[in-house]
Amino acid sequence: MQNHQTDLGHVCGTAPHPRYRKSYALTGERGQNRLNFATLIALSLLVISAPNGAEAASCKDSAVPGADWADCNKKALMLGGSDLQGANLVNTDFTLTDLRGTNLKGANLEKATLVRSSLAGAMADGANFAKIEAYRCNFAGIAAEKASFVNSELQRANFSGARLTGTSFEKAELGRANFDKAELTGTKFSHANLSRADFTSTTFTGPIDFHGAFMFLTRIEGVNLSEATGLEQEQVDMMCGDSSTKLPAGLSVPTGWPCPSDD
User: Fold this and answer.
1) pTM higher than 0.85, yes or no?
2) Buried b (16+ CB within 10 A) or exposed e, 46-67
3) In this model, does residue 11 exceed pLDDT 90?
4) What is the distance between the alpha carbons of residues 7 and 261, in angstroms, rounded to a whole number?
């Protein structure tokens, strides 16, 4: 019994039994340190490689008010009629996605991709569309009053019939964008590229800001721009109006009007 207790004490205590002295030197403290180091490396690799559960789960969440789909892939989906009011959609990819009639009021879509997607008839008052990429996106009939499209890529976008009162398109790329019959009261286009954009039959009952806008062959036939601000003669000379176009006081009709049809 005494020998047994002594051996057990040596094994479990700090002083190894002579019989185990050599193996202890190999697998004792140094071996334990190696084991701990290896364990730490393994755990670190697991932490680095493991997906972020919260992020993965948010991308799979349903379309609900306040949803967090930031940085998610939502390409080519049928989301028409969804309620995404106040949602976090920063940098979300909606390429070719159907968002017709969707509630996007107060939603944040900054840097989102909306190439060839459709937001026709969507409700987006107060939404943030700053820095979006929306080439050929369909915004027809959208209600986006006091929304922001600042610094956005909107070439050939369709805003026909859109309600854009108080909306900002400052520094936006709007080449060949269509604003036919859109409501533009108080809309800001300062420093925007509006080359070949179509403002035919647009309506506004107050100021509209074109300060510093590039307006090469911008179509303004029949448009009453008498309340527009920021327009200079150099801009008007590049635009395409006709005898029914009304200009702000102090600006004159260019000799090149009307322009040839833009096919």
Assistant:
1) no
2) eeeeeeeeeeeebeeeebeeeb
3) no
4) 103
